[in-house]
Structures are given as structure tokens and as C-alpha cells.
Please model this.
Amino acid sequence: MSLVRMDLNISLDGIAATADQTPDNPFGEDWGRLVEAYTQTRTFREQVLHDTSGAGTAGLDDDYARGYFDGIGAEIMGAGKFGLHAHPDDPDWRGWWGEEPPFHTPVFVLTHTPRPPLEMQGGTTFTFLEASPPEALALAREAAGDRDVRIGGGPTMAREYLRAGLVDVLHVGITPIILDKGIRLWDELRGLDRDYEVSSEASSSGVVHVTFTRARSA
Amino acid sequence: MSLVRMDLNISLDGIAATADQTPDNPFGEDWGRLVEAYTQTRTFREQVLHDTSGAGTAGLDDDYARGYFDGIGAEIMGAGKFGLHAHPDDPDWRGWWGEEPPFHTPVFVLTHTPRPPLEMQGGTTFTFLEASPPEALALAREAAGDRDVRIGGGPTMAREYLRAGLVDVLHVGITPIILDKGIRLWDELRGLDRDYEVSSEASSSGVVHVTFTRARSA
Model:
């Protein structure tokens, strides 16, 4: 049976969505620091930047980056990850993932203001819908077939899925920086660890990879 | 020159002081879970429980536990770590560290209600004083000679020392549990990492050890 998976980058103080975006720097400096080790991996360069030169880091961070892209059959993401919040009034806005986004699967974008679907190059289709977490998950499971479903974030949506007990595997890459502003992942998730096996690995980059794996019911 | 060091156990969501204490369980269940890997080490059993049987875990958690006790010449702690808050009206209360506390050095307890000093077995002396962080540090440095000074916590005091730039080495043992209530270490410490080298190691217990080491001025 396919798994519901989630991969997020957080700071040491648990910030998963940064808050220093400006018109000139739509991702913000904090975001750059938060995902620095990930964006330096060979896999990120290949999959997101379409850089086939072989540049980028290998090693543990790259192993997790490769795992992020492996075996996913559909994704659910919040409107912010697609980029709707940045361009709410532009019906022609096609997101900030380029014409060939790195998903290569159906992607369900949760929004209160649905718009027509977008078919991108490389197999990514964006479908915009207003739905509860379980409703969206049912659609994504059907689209994914026997492959896994990724809950793509941001953290507010991620927390809804975690609180509802809908996530089988949660991987967080913890970057050892302290941001103290933004949206924290762990709020109102007291005791989450009790439903999971938890394991940790440290990368030479300083990033710590913590994986929560839920015991499957029989 | 001696260093100012701090070692704290925190949860994945940064909680360093737990909040589920009861009269029947003065440390609380959360505290037990937070420090479980540490209290299972051979060093903790020897140094705190006076168990010389050799029981307890070896390995990375024990290496950090041994580092915690090595080379300290004086400690500064908050009233809560001594136990004053639990027995505010008992002038004969001698703290919850037993008659032979594991410090074996002068200990300066910061409190708004000073009381006479206590001389314990094994070289620990408790001195109670109302002082600013730099004032207390000057006293502790003098008492420590060429050995290191430990800032013992709790987290409110720890944050004051960190914000004031007075800590040379901060080690946090991060236990992969989510508590979501208690006092968080990282609040208002945005950018702390910029003043330090940061390294990470993961233990088979699941605990992640992150060490901030400040570049020394020449």
C-alpha cells in the first residue's frame, strides 16, 4: 500500500515558513539559509534547476533529497507553495516552479479561490480545489495509484495532516539556525512522537535529518 | 583562558523546562522523557546517583555526559534548578540534589530571596545571591580559577546569558519528542548561530547533539 509522506526543512527553533519576504526577494534571505544544504545537493540541481552537469553535493543531504523525489505519485500542496498568495489577482500566473516543475505528477493545490487546472511540461498538472485534508488525500491517493502521496506543505497545512493522523512518514531536515520569526511546525503537536518510530542522522553540513515512521496497522 | 559553557536538554520543539510537575511527581513525566537518554548513561548513574556498579549506557550520549562534568570550576544556576521554587517557605530546604550534589564546586544560585550559604558534602557549596548575569559570572570566574564556568539553567537564565553574548560553548541534546508546553530555549535568540560554529552528531538513542562553539577573540 502506498504511503503518505512529508518532507520539510525547519530551523532549530522549528520555523518551517519564513517571514522576511520582500518584493525584491520573494523567497527571502531566511528561506535561502533554511534550505541552503538542500539546494546545494546534486539532486536538487538536477531535479529543480535542470542542471545535468553533475554539480552539487553528494552524501547524506543528497540521499535525503533523492528520497524526496523517489516514488511519489501525487502531491497535495498549499496555495503558498504554488505561489498563489504572491499573485492573487493574476489569472495567468503559472506558479514559481517554471514551465517544467519538479513534481512530474498530479499536484492538488488547496485554495479558497479555485481556478482552472494547469498542465505543465514533464507530467506535472496543477488542480486547484477547496477541500478538507481527507478529501484532498482521497483524490491524491486515487491519482497516485500504488505510488506514494506527498503532503508538500507549507506548515499550516502540514500540521493539519499531522494532527489528523494522516501522515505515515515525516522527514524533517533541521538546519542549525535560529530564525524566531515565521510559522513553526511543531505547535499543537504535543505527543506526535508517540505514534511513530523516530530516528536521527547528522550530516557534515550541520543539518540533522529526523524521520518519524508510523507503525502500519495490520 | 577558561570557557563559559552551557549544556541543556531540549525537545524537538525547543522546550527546555517542562510544565507538568505535580506534588506527587515534582519533576513531571515530561522531564523524565526529556532527559531519559542522559539519565541512562553510565556517567549520570555514577555522578548523580552514586552508582559505581558500572551500569548505564556507553556511547555518544555518555561521551557528552562525561563532557558535562569535566573541567568545571564553578556553576551559576537559577533558583528553580536548585529547587527554591518548590520550597519557598522552608529555610531548611537543602535542594533536591541530595547531601552530596554532583557539582563538587562552588555553585551560585541566582534568586530574589537570598539565604545563607550551604556547604554540602563532596565540595559543593551553594551561595544564594541577587545579581545580574555579568556580576554573577565575574564571581563564578574568580571561583573557577583556570577551570570553566557552567551556566546551569533553567532556560530563562540561559537565554539571558546567551543574549548577552556571555556563553562560549552551548551544547544542546535534542530529544525527538514534541512537548508543546513549557519554556522554550530559542525564543528571542534569532541569529545566535551567526556568532558560532555549529556542529551536529546523532546518537543511536535518537538524541541529536548540537554544539555551538564561539570563535574566540584573539
Observations:
- Residues 4-16+27-87+100-205 of chain A form a domain with the Dihydrofolate Reductase, subunit A fold (CATH 3.40.430.10).
